[in-house]
Each structure stands twice: as C-alpha cells, then as structure tokens.
Amino acid sequence: MKILIAGLGLIGGSMAKALKQNTSHQVLGLDRDQDVLLDACSCGAIDGKADSQDLRTADLVYLCLYPEGALAFAREQGPLLKEGCILTDACGVKAAFCREMEALAGTGSYVFVAGHPMAGKERSGFAASDPSIFVGASYILAETGAPAWAQRQVEDLALAMGFGRIVRTTPQRHDQMIAFTSQVPHALACAYVMSPRCQHHPGFSAGSYRDVSRVANINHQLWSRLFLDNQEALTQELDELQKNLAAIRNAVASGDQAQLESLLKQAGDIKRQMG
Q: Fewest CB within 10 A of the end CB: N or C in the chain?
C-alpha cells in the first residue's frame, strides 16, 4: 500500500516509524515544517515527502493533525484522493469532528474511518515520536457508517503497529469516556500544580506528586482545543469531580472521620475492583 501521513508530530511520527518497522508498505509524509520532513527522511521514518501525485494515488491517508487542520485537509485535498482511498484521523474528540466530516460526504470519493490511537506522552513533536508508545495500547474506531472492509484495513494496520486492542464505539460514547479517562486527569493536574506550594515542592515530593502532576506538562494549544471541542461531556465530568472533592473537603473541614473513612474506602474499593 501507499500510505500518507499528514502531520509528523508525536502521533504521526510514531505511526510512520511503527509502519516502517513492522510492515512493507510505502510510507510518505506531509508536514508544514520542512525540517521535520528532512529529519523523518533522514532517520528512515518515511520513504519520502508526498507530492500532489502521491495524494492522487494513495491507498490510505492518516490525518494526524489538530481537528481544524484535519477538516481543512479533508475539504481541500479530499476531492483529489482516488476512489476507495481510506481517509482516517487521529483526533482526540470525535462527535463534533465526525459531524463535520459527515457534512463533507460526497465532496470526494474517499472512505472515511474515524480513529483514535490511545497513546501519547508529555512531550510533543517529531523529536518525541516513538513507536513503542503503541505497544499494547488501545486503538478506538468510532462508528460512522464506514464499510467493513475499510474498518478492517485500519484495524489490521493498528495491530501491525503494535496496538493490543481495538475498541469500537460511537462518537458520542467516545467523547464521554475520553472526558473521564483523559481530559479530566489533564485538567486536574493543571489545577494541582497551580497551587503556590508547587514552586516549593523539591524535597517534599515523591511518587504521589509525580503521578498527579505528570500530565500538567501539557501542549496548551492542543488541549485547550480538545477541551472546548468536548465541552458538554467534559463539563459534566468536571462537575462530578468537584462534587466528590467537595465531599472529601467538607469531611476534612468538619472533622468527620467516619464520613472521611467511608469516602476513602469507597474510592479504594472502586480502584481495586476496576484497576
């Protein structure tokens, strides 16, 4: 296959490296930063820079871009893609993005498969790309009416890259769960390190501080966009977090040990049961 990856950041660069290591497909890259393309070629992450002819002959295109960039690509380049080309994305929010992609249906002959590789790290950019982040991770496919053969192709490539599980869901369910599993932890970490005590933590911190604060080392432009694109679901989860924090806070403030023990036991039981 001829595979194009638009956007060679952390995810796109890691995908390129994983595909080159684990498959025999031709992998070409597109990125607005020419230095990134040069680096990707030099280290063997891609076979070369894609040109307009490659767009017309590609079998599959990964959109590893911010949602607005992915939509712009679909609007501008989608009509150039050949009939049956699979266009798939790596966006972290699905409902709004999939609605926009549905509105573009008929403007090209490609087949759209909504995807989300559940992997990452605190650092961003091609320099941070690492195919090992995919090993054993989940790859989410959001149902958008794509034909089964196209979904299977994206699934097979995900497994070839090292992903350990394919999860199928709806765009709406995806966003509800991502608000809980990904976006709330980032919001919590950011709120946590904004305490004036954070600047004095050396010498007083160990594993708990590292675990809670790790994802506060955040790409603020990307995550602010993801938060706002998932506004309703994230607001609901933040309300739930505030309610639970308030219950613990009130038990502490009132000196109610029985209530505090009950709340902490409930949390511990849930964590031990669910992992």
A: C
Cα angle, residue 99 at apex, residues 173 and 95 outer, rounded to 5°: 20
Q: Are 163 and 126 in contact (CB under 8 A)?
A: no
Q: Which of these, 244, 241, 260, 262, lies nearest to 252 by C-alpha position?
A: 260
What does the chain come to in residues? 275
pLDDT digit of tens for each residue in the chain (275 aa)? 999 999 999 999 999 999 999 999 999 999 999 999 999 999 999 999 999 999 999 999 999 999 999 999 999 999 999 999 999 999 999 999 999 999 999 999 999 999 999 998 878 899 999 999 999 999 999 999 999 999 999 999 999 999 999 999 999 999 999 999 999 999 999 999 999 999 999 999 999 999 999 999 998 988 999 999 999 999 999 999 999 999 999 999 999 999 999 999 999 999 999 99
In the chain, what is the straight-line distance between the N-terminal and C-terminal CA atoms, in Å?
39
| Helix/strand/coil for 170 | coil
Q: Which tokens is 15 given?
A: 């995908």
The pTM for the full model equals: 0.89
Q: What are the structure tokens assigned to 173, written together?
A: 């369910």
- Report the C-alpha gap between 188 and 198 in whole angstroms: 14
Structure tokens at 202: 């050396």
Half-sphere exposure of 21 (CA within 13 A, CB side): 17
Q: Which amino acid is at 117?
A: P
The amino acid that residue 11 corresponds to is I
Edge to edge, the sheet with strand 165-169 lists 48-49, 26-30, 2-6, 60-63, 86-89, 111-118, 138-142, 165-169
Identify the CA nearest to 17 among candidates 49, 38, 40, 37.
40
The SS3 of residue 93 is coil
- Tell me the C-alpha distance between 220 and 258, whole Å: 40
